[in-house]
Specification:
Keywords: Amino-acid biosynthesis, Aromatic amino acid biosynthesis, Lyase, Pyridoxal phosphate, Tryptophan biosynthesis. The beta subunit is responsible for the synthesis of L-tryptophan from indole and L-serine. It contains 16 helices and 14 strands. It is an alpha/beta fold. It has a 6-stranded mixed β-sheet, sandwiched between helices. A 4-stranded parallel β-sheet has the order 7-6-5-8, sandwiched between helices. A two-stranded antiparallel sheet has the order 1-2. The chain is globular.
Length: about 400
């Protein structure tokens, strides 16, 4: 029976609570309140009510007929987290943590963000619940995600630029933790992925499992059976763990897709499970990109949301026991999948989601038409349009589908 983390927040060898002594008490308070909240039917009913009436859940399960016909292989379905309010799965977790913060009497939220989707979700729920919100964001990501920075400010959040390191998500997280150490009495730290010290990986999983729970019910209603393969992108890994968790004890192949950037044999990638080693980052033990001296190697990906040197400890555990297969997709492959879904199905995905889609396309072509592949479309691509404009060189009359015909 799958039953992790244990009472110490460990997923096998991974996870735990590697933080300064000043944060131990705040973490214990959050863990205690989370345990009570998850057993409280009133709390759970309020969480579900807000998901339904404010965020727009359940999100649809969409069959991709044109893509399926083009590939001439397995049927492809999309779990449409891009249709959530704010445009990504991040809102599921933000609503849950905001409710917990409210239950604990906290009125100020700290968050960090890379692609901006968690920052927008945090700013959104802060506005909804009447809380103050500070979002830390690397200077490089601020440039890449100008639209989301404007959205956060419009929603009333203060966006704090981070100029240290590579000026991306890892550095924003460092600054958010430093700020929290000094302000943990009246601030709630809203982490956006299944990373960080216990109980955050478990908490984010519990607030994201709604993705997989819904998908399982919807797929059984549509196909009368479970999918053969489920694919999701993995940076920190919150959409993937939310999708995978309800299927862990079923006979379903689960594939997590990391960002290979310019190739895993180059220094320019963010493939933390594929190329990483065990170490501690942001309060938990997991796989991360580091040199022989334990110094972080700066990750790279065209996707700001996957540009993180570590991975959630539960993903590290699932890789170690062989339950989930983790593979990688390059920038070039993700861009091609981004264009393919846009042109074939009229759906513009986030670049993060395009990594999962690229792997799903590759797998579907090797399967027969009685089989099915389910992809977690974790977010929509509005935020990535400017990035794509800088990278895409395809002409309007180019046939992007030609390379995929089976």
């Amino acid at each position: 029976m799958y039953n992790v983390p244990n009472e110490n927040g460990r997923f096998g060898d991974f996870g735990g609570k590697f933080v300064p002594e000043t944060l131990m008490l705040p973490l214990e308070e959050i863990e205690e309140e989370l345990t009570k909240a998850l057993a409280d039917e009133t709390f759970k009913a309020e969480y579900i009510r807000i998901l339904q009436q404010y965020s727009g859940r359940p999100t649809p399960l969409t069959f991709a007929p044109n893509l399926t016909k083009l590939l001439n292989g397995a049927k492809i379905y999309l779990k449409r987290e891009d249709l959530n309010h704010t445009g990504a799965h991040k809102i599921n977790n933000a609503i849950g943590q905001a409710l917990l913060a409210k239950r604990m009497g906290k009125k100020k939220i700290i968050a960090e963000t890379g692609a901006g989707q968690h920052g927008v979700a945090a700013a959104t729920v802060a506005a909804h619940f009447g809380m103050e919100c500070i979002v830390f964001m690397g200077e490089e990501d601020i440039k890449r995600q100008e639209l989301n920075v404007f959205r956060m400010k419009l929603l009333g959040a203060e966006v704090v630029p981070v100029y240290s390191g590579n000026r991306t998500l890892k550095d924003a997280t460092n600054e958010a933790i430093r700020y929290w150490v000094q302000h943990c009495d009246d601030h709630f730290y809203m982490i956006g992925s299944v990373v960080g010290p216990h109980p955050y990986p478990k908490m984010v999983r519990e607030f994201q499992r709604v993705i997989g729970d819904e998908a399982k019910r919807q797929f059984l209603e549509r196909e009368g059976k479970l999918p053969n393969v489920i694919v999701a992108c993995v940076g920190g890994g919150s959409n993937a763990i939310g999708m995978f968790y309800p299927f862990l004890e079923d006979d379903v192949q689960l594939v997590g897709v990391e960002a290979a950037g310019k190739g895993v044999d180059t220094p320019y990638h963010a493939a933390t499970i594929t190329k990483g080693t065990k170490g501690v980052i942001h309060g938990s033990l997991t796989y991360l990109l580091q040199d022989e001296y334990g110094q972080i190697i700066e990750p790279y990906s065209i996707s700001a949301g996957l540009d993180y040197p570590g991975v959630g400890p539960e993903h590290a555990y699932l890789a170690s026991i062989g339950r989930v297969r983790y593979e990688s997709v390059t920038d070039e492959e993700a861009i091609a999948a981004f264009q393919l879904l846009s042109r074939e199905e009229g759906i513009i995905p986030a670049i993060e989601s395009a990594h999962a889609l690229a792997k799903a396309v590759e797998l579907a072509k090797t399967m027969d038409d009685s089989q099915t592949v389910l992809v977690c479309l974790s977010g929509r691509g509005d935020k990535d349009v400017q990035t794509m404009m800088r990278y895409v060189h395809v002409k309007e009359d180019d046939d992007v589908a030609a390379m995929y015909r089976n």
